[in-house]
């Protein structure tokens, strides 16, 4: 278990570095554009002017935070992987890691983002922060419950000797239907989009943020899979040797 957790932390570290680089190279541009719009607005009465930290300091702090959070996610990922590996034996370790990363991304990132897509700075009423946070976290919890239910459904169908592809279609289809119900039932975002925020900037921010999280989960799944699957490591080493200059 200690080795699995250590590999999860290492994979999380690598994934955090990938996410931090994506943040700087892709997310930072719409972030700065949104900050310009926010700074151009009239200051609220009694508000303090200026930021406590400079923008470069904020960028470095964000990168460090991304790495730390990714390491914690990697540790949890490793624990869940160990639980799944004890119950799913037909897949390779690398395939299990990719599968688990895909499920984690769908439940923790994609589902809540469909209902509550990310907004840049300057969008959102500070008085509704707690309400919006609770709605977002509750939808993540619902996504995790759906993932567990899909896993149980898949195993239940396996005990009835259903074919593998059919089990996957039924379990995934049921989860998608229930996810649609959750999206319809959960309350909408209470905050309107300010008129001074261009739609192009809004969607540029949302897509960039989604890409950052997708890169994190993809790097986590691939990195952890390579660390726990010796055959995958040998294949990767062979690929590197094949492209290395002679």
TrEMBL record:
Stretches that traverse the bilayer: 59-81, 93-114, 134-154, 166-187, 207-228
Protein name according to UniProt: CbtA family protein
Keyword terms of this UniProt record: Membrane, Transmembrane, Transmembrane helix
InterPro entries named among the record's database cross-references: CbtA_put
Domain of life: Bacteria
UniProt key word Signal: no
């Amino acid at each position: 278990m200690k080795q699995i957790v250590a590999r999860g932390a290492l994979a999380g570290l690598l994934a955090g570095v990938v996410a931090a680089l994506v943040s700087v190279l892709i997310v930072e541009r719409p972030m700065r554009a949104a900050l310009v719009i926010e700074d151009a607005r009239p200051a609220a009465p009694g508000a303090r002017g200026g930021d406590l930290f400079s923008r470069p300091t904020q960028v470095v702090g964000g990168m460090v935070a991304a790495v730390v959070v990714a390491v914690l996610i990697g540790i949890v990922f490793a624990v869940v992987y160990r639980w799944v590996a004890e119950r799913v034996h037909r897949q390779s370790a690398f395939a299990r890691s990719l599968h688990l990363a895909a499920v984690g991304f769908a439940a923790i990132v994609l589902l809540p983002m469909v209902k509550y897509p990310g907004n840049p700075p300057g969008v959102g009423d500070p008085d509704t922060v707690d309400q919006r946070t609770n709605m977002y976290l509750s939808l993540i919890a619902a996504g995790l419950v759906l993932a567990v239910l899909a896993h149980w459904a898949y195993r239940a169908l396996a005990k009835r000797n259903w074919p593998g592809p059919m089990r996957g279609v039924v379990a995934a289809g049921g989860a998608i239907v229930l996810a649609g119900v959750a999206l319809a039932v959960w309350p909408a975002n209470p905050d309107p989009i300010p008129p001074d925020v261009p739609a192009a900037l809004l969607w540029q921010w949302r897509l960039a943020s989604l890409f950052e999280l997708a890169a994190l989960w993809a790097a986590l799944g691939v990195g952890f899979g390579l660390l726990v699957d010796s055959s995958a490591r040998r294949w990767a080493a062979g690929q590197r040797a094949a492209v290395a200059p002679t």
